[in-house]
Every structure is written in structure tokens, then in C-alpha cells.
Amino acid sequence: EKNNELAAQYPDPYWHELSVEDATTDSMDGVHTGRIDFIDEEHPLELLPHSIRDQMALTGMALSADGAMLATFGSSASVHIWDTDTFELLTTLHDREEPNIDEFFVGQFTPSSEYLVVGGKLKDRKRWSEADEDNHILPCPLKIFNVLTGEVVGRLEGHSEEILCIKSVVYKGENYFVTTSQDGYIRRWSMSSDWMVLQDTKEVTDGVTCMAFTVSFLPNTGNRFFIASTDDHLTLVDLDQCKIVQRFDPIYSSTDPQSAHPSEPAGPHAYFITRGVELLDAENNTVSSRPNTCTLHRLVYPTEPDGKFELQEIRRYHHDEYLSNSWLIRITSNGRYILAPTLNGQVFVFSIATGQVTGILRDHE
């Protein structure tokens, strides 16, 4: 009941895209501005006549709240911000006072788009690590840039290794960043009303996880709970208490691809998709000999106080040529397709409803 009250008071902010009924077509050039309905031979995906290029490896992107700006992150010490209408470079952000080597992997605009919080890797310019075959890694901060001036206006210390994910969330009217890291910890950062000043920070009590990859908040829980990807487990976390509620068994490299059809639950539930990395056992343990999979799950919420969440497997998405150890995955805004990239630059497009591959994007080298 408390979660229902919280969810009603703080409704989910996750889906703001146009519905199919609200979609429009520009009479001048026939451009459809609504959701993507079809990807097939008659309605193919096509490249825009624009490209975003850099001399570094690009590892992440973030859109501003209004969709007007796109920030790109990578292995250099710079963040580039692009105009999404013209794809012209608007500005480059760089910490001019940082004496060491920055690599920016991920970032998040604040709701006003005035600031950009960025995380990644910080390396000692004067010290080498034989184990990493790279410059020695230093404790990795979050850096808050003023988008207009380019200045670093905030620095949040807490993670000892690379930051892999940043999510912003409002819980009970308070602002938070949630980060994951290669140090194994998930950290909650309580921020001021303008997202600028750190109030306090706390890490999720764990002691088991080696690497935490990403988080996704559960709908209709008032942003109290989120699912985290940790090592070979899925972990359910309580944001309020900063504690692990439940850890689900490994779901990859353990069973063959399959489809299950559990009965529809009567109580609250949510759907989400995970991306697995299978064990490497070919070509000197560099390639998986079995197709990797994406898996559609249903998470059934408990209906009794202190009850258990139930994780149900609905469908697995795989293809004989889909051998990949890329961590990334995205779902289209209409909820119809999975876009799953591979190590060799291809992106497989799976239909969520049918499980079929409806397209393969081969434009990356």
C-alpha cells in the first residue's frame, strides 16, 4: 500500500515519446516524426546524411531533456555536444584544470540541461600499471560541467575505479544520481534542488559484487526499487535503504536459448530485457561458440508485506551470427524492437513480439 501511494504521488517519468496517434508527417519532405512502427524490407532503417566522428573511441551518448542536444563520450578527455537538428558541434567540454588523464564513458544532463554530469576513468599521468597495461587508475570522480561556460562546477568523490553508468532520479521529491562502477559498488548521491551541490552519498551494502554495470528503475514503485546488473546476477535494490533486496540466479551461460510462457500474473509486474555475455570458449577464449542472447523477463511484484519478487523468463532472442560480447543494448521508444550491437560493429534488430531478426545494421567498421 505504501508503494502504491508513493507511485501515485510520484508517477513514472520514463515514457514521454509521441504515441502513434500523435505522430505527424511533414508534408514538405514526408518525414514521419512519431514512433517507429515497422522495420522490414518495405520500411528499412536508413542512415541520415550526417555523421558524428572523433579521433577517439565513442563509448556513450546522452540526450538533453528536450532532445535538442546530444552529448558523446569516449576515451579522450573531452565531451562533445551536438545539435540534433543539424548535427553540428555546439561545444566541447574539457576539464582544463585536471592534471591527470580523463576518459569519459557516460553522462547525464540535468533536467534543465544547464549542467552535464560525467563519469568514466581517471588515470595517473606519471605512473604505469603492468597489470592493466595502461596508466595506473586513480579514484574516479563524477564531474559536473556547466554546459554554457564549459567549467567544472562540481566534483563528486566516492568510486575507486571506472564509473560505468549514471542515472538521475527523483525520489520523494528529492534529487539523486545513482552510479555503478567497476569497483563493484552502486552509489547513491543526494543532490540539491538544482542538482549542483552534493548533500550526502551512500553506497549499496554488498560485499559480493566485482563489477556493477547498469541500473533500471521499476515502474509504479515511486522510484524506490531498481534492478541492477552485477557480474552474472540481476540484483534488486532498495534506493531508500541502499540495500540489496533480492539477488536472482545467473541467467546466462547456464541454459540453452529457450522460450517460456508463464501464466499472466494477477498482481503488479514489469517487463524488462537483459543482455547476456556467454562464456568465451573459442579462438583462445576470445569468442563464444554459442550464440549470445537477449532475454525478455517479467518481474512480478509481491502482493504481501515482505514478500518475494518473482523473475519469470518469457522469451530469448538469438541468431546463429549473433556472437557478441558487447554490453550495450537498447529498446526502441515504441517498445517493439531490441537493438543489440556486436563486437564487430554490427547491430542486430530483434522484433520483441516475434523474436525474429528484422534487420542488421552493418555501417560501423
Q: Could you outline the blueprint of secondary structure elements for this entry?
A:
Elements: H1 2-9, E1 58-63, E2 69-74, E3 78-83, E4 89-94, E5 101-109, E6 115-129, E7 134-137, E8 140-146, E9 152-159, E10 163-171, E11 174-181, E12 186-191, E13 198-203, E14 212-217, E15 225-230, E16 233-238, E17 243-248, E18 269-275, E19 294-300, E20 310-317, E21 330-331, E22 337-341, E23 347-351, E24 357-361
Distance between the termini: 52 Å
Helix count from the secondary structure assignment? 1
What is the typical, i.e. mean, pLDDT? Answer: 86
Instruction: Tell me the β content.
Output: 35-45%
**Could you say what the CATH topology of the largest domain is called?**
Methylamine Dehydrogenase, Chain H
Low-pLDDT residue spans: 17-33
Shape: globular
Structural class: mainly beta
State the helicity in percent bands.
under 10%
CATH architecture assignment of the largest domain: 7 Propeller
* Count of strand segments: 24
CATH class category of the largest domain? Mainly Beta
Order of helices and strands: HEEEEEEEEEEEEEEEEEEEEEEEE
Query: CATH superfamily membership of the largest domain, which one?
Result: YVTN repeat-like/Quinoprotein amine dehydrogenase
Number of domains: 2
Which sheet architecture does the biggest sheet show?
5 strands, antiparallel
* CA radius of gyration: 21 Å
Keywords: Repeat, WD repeat
InterPro entries: WD40/YVTN_repeat-like_dom_sf (IPR015943), WD40_repeat_dom_sf (IPR036322), WD40_rpt (IPR001680), WD_repeat_multifunction (IPR051179)
Protein name: WD40 repeat-like protein
Pfam family, one: WD40
